[in-house]
Amino acid sequence: MLKQSLEQVGARLIKELPIVNAYLCEFPSEEKALLTFRNREELFEVEDDIEFKLCWLFAPFFPLPPLFPPPFQAPAKPQPQPVYGGVRVGWGLKRIGAPEVWDKLQKRRVRVGIIDTGIDYKHQDLRENIKDGICTLDGQRDFMDDYGHGTHIAGIIGSAGNRYRGMMGINPYVDIYAVKAFNKEGKGKLSDIIEGLEWLARRQVELINMSFSTSENSRAFASAISFMEAQGITMVAASGNDGVGRSVKFPARFPQVIAVSATDRYDRVAAFSSTGPEVDFCAPGTDIPSAWLNNSYEEKSGTSFAAPHITGIAADIQNVYGPMPPSRLREIMASGAVRLAQLSDEQQGAGMVELPRIIK
């Protein structure tokens, strides 16, 4: 019945989205869309295929030095990444104590989904940990990253540079499942994200990182998030880059999703980070070094890069203690979180998670 109605007004059915019982359709005009569903309001609900943006900064971020030294004092000027066993480690990983628990990780590999711009699956630090991938963009198949953002996210979570004297991620033993839902301009649509969520659910991932945001709510997106939580999947998202005091964006705003704000190397909330009562944890998000396109490395800033610190922490916890419901994972992370004196509750949630307080 739907296909026949679409044909009558010159519209087309682009894709089906089973987990939310929805269809993505393209109409010649808004009037044609209204005509198609007139007198059928009890059968269909119509909403736009909203656009999402990535939560990163294009320009370098230069925080001001603190007036008073905080409890955790990092170098005032960027220094070369410290070396552990011949590999480079970013300051963010050092701040959460990731290197201190590497020798305690088990052989169990945690399945992590990343919805982003794809991943450079030829990067020497990542290729062995990438298990599968999909591109949900219309007319494309290859999930190769042509933008860089997704590769950077994957590097923070699961780089295995110890074999190539490259950079290490928080958990170098993860199995990464990549969804390319953002194009080479860094733009993404809700329908492509929902399709990616369904694909990840079929592959039984345990964690999903979402470093993107929108200020618009969506019933279809809310339904997809509820479906994923019902599958026992823990979802982590960037709070947004609208600045301190500005509201947390979706999907981080959904209660089922772990919302992450960003801090700088002085344990202060990053000036660009969205904050609010929805924030669950804070994590390093300024000048974060990680993998980039063509076997290179870049430093980037944004709540985009705070979120994968929490995703990586969650992967470590599940590596050591095994699968667990999202609610239990939150409890364990909160038990290992340190509250930062300079941050309010809405800026840090439960605080900065430190892995050595959890994995001993």
How would you sum up this structure in a few lines?
With 360 residues, the chain is of the alpha/beta class. It contains nine helices and 18 strands.
Describe this structure in words.
The N and C termini lie far apart (60 Å). A hairpin with a 2-residue loop joins strand 4 and strand 5. The chain has 360 residues and is an alpha/beta fold. Helix content is 24%, strand content 22%. The strands form six sheets. It has a seven-stranded parallel sheet with strand order 7-8-6-10-12-13-14, sandwiched between helices. About 2% of the residues have low confidence. It has two domains: 36 residues, no CATH class; 291 residues, Peptidase S8/S53 domain (Rossmann fold), CATH 3.40.50. Helix 4 runs parallel beside helix 7 and helix 5 runs parallel beside helix 6. The chain is built from nine helices and 18 strands.
Descriptive key words:
360 residues; alpha/beta; Rossmann fold; seven-stranded parallel beta sheet; three-stranded antiparallel beta sheet; 9 helices; 18 strands
Read across the widest sheet, the strand sequence of neighbours is 7-8-6-10-12-13-14
The CATH superfamily of the largest domain is known as: Peptidase S8/S53 domain
Strand content: 15-25%
Which value, in Å, is the CA radius of gyration?
A: 20 Å
Strand tally:
18
Mean of pLDDT: 90
N- to C-terminal separation? 60 Å
Number of helices: 9
CATH topology of the largest domain: Rossmann fold
What is the percent of helical residues? Answer: 10-25%
Encode the helix/strand succession as letters: HEEHEEEHEEHEEHEEHEEEEEHHEHE
CATH class descriptor of the largest domain: Alpha Beta
- What structural class do you assign from the helix and strand content? alpha/beta
